[in-house]
Structures are given as C-alpha cells and as structure tokens.
Amino acid sequence: MKNLKRLALVIAIVMLMGVFAACAESPEAQGSTAANTAEASATVQEGESGAGSYKIGSTANNVGTDTYQTQHDKTLREYAAEKGVDLVQLDATGDVTKQINQVDDLIQQGCDVIIIWPVNGKALVPAAKKASEAGIPVVIANSNIDESGYDYIKCFVGPDNVKEGELAGEMMMEAFPNGAKIVEITGLPGYTTATERSEGFRSKIEGSNIEIADSQPGDWNREKAQQQMENFLLKFSDIDAVYCADDNMAIGAINAIKEAGRMDQIKVISCCFFGDDEAKGYLESGEIAGSVLQSPMTDAKTTLDVALQVAAGEEVEFFSYIDTPKVTPETIGTIDLPAW
C-alpha cells in the first residue's frame, strides 16, 4: 500500500514539473513562434499573387508633356506600390537615344519584364530585340512599336488607336450626313499613335462627302494646336469642323475659334477624352461635339496587370486593348468616369 502511495506521488511530481516547464517558455520565444507563423502565412499569400516577387522595369515616353502621360505615370507608380511590385520607372523625356539607353539600363538591372512606351515605334525595335535576346520579355504600352518589332515583344497594352480614329470619323459623319469641309490637327509626326488616329479617321470617312481641306500637326500641345487653328481660320472662310487627335489640342482649337467669333459655325470632334474635369466641361457644354474616352488610369493599371501576367509566365493576348467608348454631350452624364 505504501509503495502505491509513493508511486502516485512520483507521477504527480513529474506531471507538475512538465506544467512548470511549459509555462516557463519566454515571451520572446512565444512571440518568435507567432511571428514565424505570420511570416509563413504572408509568404503563402505573396506567392499566390506573385506581384511582390517581380521586378518590373518601365521607360515612359515623355512624362509631363500632357495630362495623360502625367496621370499614367502617377497611377503606374501608385498601383505598383499598392501591389508590392518593385517598379523601376524611368522617363525618356521624348528623347529616343535616352530611351534606348534606358532599356539597356533596365536589362543590366535584371528586370523580369520591361515596359516600353515608345518615343518612336520604329527606332525602339533594336532595343526591344536586345531585351528579348537577353531573355527579358517586353510589353509595349499605349503607343505601339513598328510591326518589324513584333517578334521581339510579348504584347501591346493600351488603346486601339485606329479604332479610336474610326469612332471619331463616325461621329463626324453623323454630324454631317450630307458632307462637310473640315481641317485636321494631328499629334506628333512620326509618333505611332498620331499616325494611327489619323489613319482610322480617314478610313472611316473615305467615300463620304467629307473633305479634309488641310491637315497640320499640333504635337499634342494646346498652344501649337491653337496656332494651327488660327492659321486655318485665316486660310479658309468656310470650315465646317475640325478633327483633333486629342482633347488637349481640341481645347486649343476651341480657343482660336472663340477668338474668331466662329464657335456657332464650326464643330469640334476629338479622338481622345482623358476623363478629366476640364475636358468634361467642354463636352457637357457641347463645345466638343464628340470624343472617345481613354482613361490613363485604366491604361496604366491594365499595363501593369498584364506585365505581371507575363512575368508569371502566363499567356496573354498579343493586343490587349482597353475599352474606349464614344462620348458625346448627350452621353457624358451616363458614363462612369474615373476620379482624377
């Protein structure tokens, strides 16, 4: 009986020592265990999204030259930070040689994907080829590369500029079913976007009674577009409308038309409405009779999303176009515009 009591006492002491040992674990050790668990969970979540594990290089065309490029750059940086992406964002400031050197730099930095918004679609083909040969996939943003470079890129992300021009042509034909004498203010000569928006517009009005009396570049600049419109007004006394490659230049043209006192005689059709409040006011008033919505925020976010898909080895559409609907004074109030 005494032996049984002694055995029970030994067992109780052993169990009590085990309890004390467990309770004696330091707070630091407990915290380390919790931290390791949280870290493991975060690693799994990051692995699922993949975004935080990639380094994306980007060379922009000319940030600050217009509100679109400025907002696109801002959105791309903010969206990358939101997704935890290591973004190396450079600006070519409209200089082809500088952009080619920036692509070289991004190759040396070992980026997983390089995004290029080309200053010149043809001149950037060798740079895209070099990146491709280095094993780095290239995503072209907003303004396409020359077709000779298609073998060296994964995809193009941005607006279908030819389609935008066609939509503007449709609105011009709807405004003048019996024909009209018009003038055109294009973007920067040699720039793919400018060429495609003009080509799309011209292809749509071909065969109609709409005559393009003259066409001059506005270089995406409001002041230059105003000067070109002033020259048109002096040269022609019977202009029915002007087609502008974007709303910024359209506002420049409107300034000239207003100064000449001919706003009631000339319609303004644009090819690109950024969704900003200023241009929205011109559409609401009818001073811009029609345009095509192209959001820089949507453009930038879609570009980064597709670049991340490419980095993850996913298949993507070669032409990943963003939606660009027609906008008129009658429909502007029904469209959900992104906040600037």
List the helices and strands and how they pair.
Elements: H1 2-23, H2 27-49, E1 55-60, H3 67-83, E2 86-91, H4 96-108, E3 113-116, H5 125-133, E4 138-141, E5 155-158, H6 161-175, E6 180-186, H7 192-205, E7 210-217, H8 222-235, E8 241-244, H9 247-259, E9 267-270, H10 277-285, E10 291-292, H11 296-311, E11 319-321, E12 326-327
Parallel strand pairs: 1-2, 1-3, 3-4, 4-5, 5-11, 6-7, 6-8, 8-9
Antiparallel strand pairs: 10-12
Question: What does the model show?
Answer:
It is a single chain. The protein has 340 residues and is an alpha/beta fold. The chain has two domains: 55-159 and 296-323, Rossmann fold (3-Layer(aba) Sandwich); 161-293, Response regulator (Rossmann fold, 3-Layer(aba) Sandwich), CATH 3.40.50.2300. The protein has eleven helices and twelve strands. It has helices spanning 2-23, 27-49, 67-83, 96-108, 125-133, 161-175, 192-205, 222-235, 247-259, 277-285, 296-311; strands at 55-60, 86-91, 113-116, 138-141, 155-158, 180-186, 210-217, 241-244, 267-270, 291-292, 319-321, 326-327. The strands form three sheets. Strands 2-1-3-4-5-11 form a six-stranded parallel sheet, sandwiched between helices. A four-stranded parallel sheet has the order 7-6-8-9, sandwiched between helices. A two-stranded antiparallel ribbon has the order 10-12. Strand 8, helix 9 and strand 9 (267-270) form a beta-alpha-beta unit.
Quick structural gist:
Keywords: Signal. The protein has 340 residues and is an alpha/beta fold. The chain contains eleven helices and twelve strands.
